[in-house]
Amino acid sequence: MSRRQISGEPGVLSVDHTLCSGTGHCVDRLPQLFTIEHGRAWLADAAALSTVDTQHLHEVEAGCPWFAITYQPRPPAPAEESSPATPGLE
Ligand code: SF4
User: What is the per-residue burial (b if ≥16 Cβ within 10 Å, else e) of 75-87?
Assistant: First the structure.
């Protein structure tokens, strides 16, 4: 079974089937992630975002002629907070 959305370490990749026309440009660019079934793009079961350079994920999103692909990078983890020293409490 294929999916319309996958998430992983680099972010979330999804296909909007209300916009996808099945042109297959995404499959041409990233055949390890996309497949065409019943005239729509799907994300392959074995797809692993972590195996694809994030630049390629941005490119496949930008290359969809119907704007059906969305790639949302995962925000960077917040830096570890260090407690500011309180003057006079040492
Ligand atoms: S490139 Fe866009 S419109 Fe074409 S099959 Fe892929 S998701 Fe659908």
Answer: eeeeeeeeeeeee
